[in-house]
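[recover] target loaded
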């Protein structure tokens, strides 16, 4: 990670508040940004209690597998809420005085490796290859000390490093980088066992590789990757990125076409509005574009996966019916003085109250309605994109006709999924044989 570690004023106050409440044994995650020279910890959120009536364990070293899984699941869900450039950096612990060094090392390794595994499963890119170290922040019960250590997630035997962590308010505005991307992915399904989640992941990985290789324009012009992405000045104006993609090049070992019978196919189509936040005034174009591309991959993957999760949870209610599943919409909310916004994904039947409850549960943050942004809706309406139900119905009809033409006998119906109330940012169409998943 970076040579200098900086903890934001918000995070520092939050952690001191937990300690003042004598919340010893409390675990949580650290969020922030990694740059070549510095690592910024901008947000900390405690792990929600399984039972709101219980207290954190007095002996964190006695955590069982279920407790570790609970921490990692919290990290996975929070990772979905992060825009480009912001990552799950590691974990923290309000450490009891009686906890031994050996016990601390063991539990920290279990926590950090479980969190990284959970978060990495939802990435279409590999951050661990670039930055193998993750951080652990310990807040001691019997002193004012806050110790920061790094752990190598690839090698548990690597000695940990004790780091100096400096404090900063980090309140100045961060550089905002935005893009609106059209998504049109067709994924053949050759399996007959309805493992569409695995098929979709494989297909999205191929698309992700193509997306990462795409070229770009910055505010309509080409800029050298090593140049500064912002325009300078105290007021950081948003930077608009346009991605230019071409047909994916064939690999060198491809010498012939492959014709393969498909049981069905998955289509992911629509428009996504993405963003990334960058700290500092000297961020290079290549770093800003990389963060934004990763946000494109993240939001497409998360929305597709949430549709599958919703179908699995409601499979009994939907089995045998002609159903149309709506993918969740994305809502941003600026929760830091620097204007960095996190997001949430909600289905069309969820309102602002659900949004506020999830921010409280997952981030331990009291969200106010005035902090919620409606950027996606405004941008897509200006583009003339129809977000009404008529578009989804037309799509469903078109794909049903295509299924009929194949000659296959489908006992299920095509399910059209549009990303929701704020914007139709993506739509997922599933063709399948047999019962619904």
């Amino acid at each position: 990670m970076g040579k200098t570690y900086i903890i934001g004023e918000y995070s520092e106050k939050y952690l001191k508040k937990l300690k003042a409440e004598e919340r010893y044994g409390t675990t949580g995650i650290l969020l922030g940004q990694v740059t070549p020279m510095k690592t910024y910890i901008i947000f900390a959120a405690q792990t929600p209690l399984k039972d709101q009536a219980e207290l954190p364990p007095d002996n964190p070293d006695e955590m069982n597998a279920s407790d570790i899984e609970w921490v990692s699941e919290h990290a996975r869900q929070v990772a979905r809420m992060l825009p480009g450039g912001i990552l799950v950096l590691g974990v923290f612990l309000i450490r009891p005085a009686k906890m031994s060094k050996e016990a601390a090392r063991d539990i920290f390794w279990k926590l950090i490796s479980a969190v990284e595994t959970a978060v990495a499963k939802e990435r279409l890119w590999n951050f661990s290859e670039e930055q193998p170290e993750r951080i652990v922040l310990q807040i001691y019960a019997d002193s004012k000390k806050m110790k920061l250590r790094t752990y190598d997630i690839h090698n548990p035997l690597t000695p940990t490093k004790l780091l100096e962590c400096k404090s900063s308010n980090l309140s100045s505005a961060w550089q905002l980088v935005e893009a609106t991307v059209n998504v049109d992915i067709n994924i053949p399904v050759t399996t007959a066992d309805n493992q569409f989640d695995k098929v979709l992941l494989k297909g999205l990985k191929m698309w992700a590789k193509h997306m990462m290789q795409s070229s770009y324009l910055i505010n309509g012009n080409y800029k050298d990757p090593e140049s500064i992405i912002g325009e300078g000045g105290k007021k950081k104006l948003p930077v608009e990125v346009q991605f230019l993609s071409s047909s994916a090049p064939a690999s060198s070992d491809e010498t012939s076409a492959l014709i393969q019978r498909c049981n069905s196919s998955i289509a992911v189509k629509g428009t996504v509005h993405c963003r990334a936040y960058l700290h500092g005034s000297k961020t290079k174009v290549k770093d800003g574009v990389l963060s934004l591309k990763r946000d494109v991959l993240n939001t497409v993957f998360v929305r597709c996966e949430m549709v599958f999760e919703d179908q699995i949870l409601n499979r009994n209610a939907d089995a045998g019916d002609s159903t149309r599943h709506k993918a969740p919409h994305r809502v941003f909310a600026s929760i830091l003085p620097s204007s960095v916004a996190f997001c949430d994904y909600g289905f069309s039947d969820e309102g602002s109250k659900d949004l506020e409850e999830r921010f409280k549960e997952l981030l331990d943050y009291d969200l106010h309605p005035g902090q919620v942004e409606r950027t996606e809706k405004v941008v897509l309406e200006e583009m003339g994109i129809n977000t009404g139900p008529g578009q989804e119905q037309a799509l469903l009809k078109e794909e049903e006709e295509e299924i009929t033409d194949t000659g296959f006998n489908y006992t299920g119906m095509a399910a059209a999924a549009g990303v929701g109330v704020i914007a139709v940012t993506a739509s997922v169409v599933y063709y399948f044989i047999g019962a619904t998943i």
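[recover] notes: Residues 4-168 form a domain with the Cytidine Deaminase; domain 2 fold (CATH 3.40.140.10).
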